Amino acid sequence: MSTIDNFKSFRRLWTSRALLADQFENDTDKKAEPQQAAHEESDEEYERSIKTKILDVSLKFVPDLGWSKQAISAGFVVCCDILYAECSRKRSRTLRSNVAVGAESIGYPGVTHGLFPNGGTALVQHFYSSCNCKLNEILKKEALTIQDDPSRPRKTPEQQIRDAVETRLRMLAPYAKTWPQAMAIMALPPNVPTALANLLTLVDDICYYAGDRSVDFNWYTRRMMLATIYKTTELYMLQDISEDHKETWLFLDRRIKDALQIYAIVSNSTDKTLPDQTLNRATEAATAVFITARNILGLNWNR
């Protein structure tokens, strides 16, 4: 069955279901009124959960459809049966309304406009933040393992950073062909703050679990250098055709080696030339930048 036929079937399915759902809801409105206030907050939380499920499934279509409304729509079609059952159980009028409106459109389900008004941007942001969370969990687990068993061999901070960057970049591998599109989307002016916040959060997590807990000007310097290393290696990876991206990891090794040399020079120079007051102010400003980044993403600064 073609994609168009799938969408036509989707329209018929959801139109009939939406009508039945509305009829049922009209019959039970008076009985449900006392309970609506209690369900309001949980409905909002549940809507976020539904969005996450749809975006997770939509990622499977990105290699073919790109970071687009079409990919989200395809993911939504796959999720529609589960979504309808859950919406009916929760009696969420907001979600069913979005679905019903979408069923009236030819081509793309209305979820693209109702639940995801930003289209492909929402898909890119979901993927980026999900990957960051996965890496954070990996690094946290490694740190706890070392803490529970001090006899285990420890990596140097440089090796921890290097391995963390590789782990994170490998998450892009299945989407390498379409990732330039994602980068272009996040480079649009409205998306720049979120893109920057994602990057700053990523490098801060890597530095933190590599043991960087210092509070000085070099705290900022190290993170900015790591952000540069990550982005340049990311760009290199997109044009790397070597087996298992072997050339990319060699490129990463060289960049980290270069960064260590530059950092040694900058660190020594900074400590000797800047007064303590200037360093303190710079550190406060740097900390504020990363706190702002996490606030943009709705993340808690406390670990």
UniProtKB/TrEMBL annotation:
<dbReference type="InterPro" id="IPR048674">
    <property type="entry name" value="COQ9_HTH"/>
</dbReference>
<dbReference type="InterPro" id="IPR013718">
    <property type="entry name" value="COQ9_C"/>
</dbReference>
<feature type="domain" description="Ubiquinone biosynthesis protein COQ9 HTH">
    <location>
        <begin position="49"/>
        <end position="75"/>
    </location>
</feature>
<keyword id="KW-0496">Mitochondrion</keyword>
<dbReference type="GO" id="GO:0005743">
    <property type="term" value="C:mitochondrial inner membrane"/>
</dbReference>
<dbReference type="Pfam" id="PF08511">
    <property type="entry name" value="COQ9"/>
</dbReference>
<keyword id="KW-0831">Ubiquinone biosynthesis</keyword>
<dbReference type="GO" id="GO:0008289">
    <property type="term" value="F:lipid binding"/>
</dbReference>
<protein>
    <recommendedName>
        <fullName>Ubiquinone biosynthesis protein</fullName>
    </recommendedName>
</protein>
<comment type="pathway">
    <text>Cofactor biosynthesis; ubiquinone biosynthesis.</text>
</comment>
<comment type="similarity">
    <text>Belongs to the COQ9 family.</text>
</comment>
<feature type="region of interest" description="Disordered">
    <location>
        <begin position="25"/>
        <end position="45"/>
    </location>
</feature>
<dbReference type="InterPro" id="IPR012762">
    <property type="entry name" value="Ubiq_biosynth_COQ9"/>
</dbReference>
<dbReference type="Pfam" id="PF21392">
    <property type="entry name" value="COQ9_N"/>
</dbReference>
<comment type="function">
    <text>Membrane-associated protein that warps the membrane surface to access and bind aromatic isoprenes with high specificity, including ubiquinone (CoQ) isoprene intermediates and presents them directly to Coq7, therefore facilitating the Coq7-mediated hydroxylase step. Participates in the biosynthesis of coenzyme Q, also named ubiquinone, an essential lipid-soluble electron transporter for aerobic cellular respiration.</text>
</comment>
<dbReference type="GO" id="GO:0006744">
    <property type="term" value="P:ubiquinone biosynthetic process"/>
</dbReference>
<keyword id="KW-0446">Lipid-binding</keyword>
<keyword id="KW-0809">Transit peptide</keyword>
<keyword id="KW-0830">Ubiquinone</keyword>
<feature type="domain" description="COQ9 C-terminal">
    <location>
        <begin position="192"/>
        <end position="261"/>
    </location>
</feature>
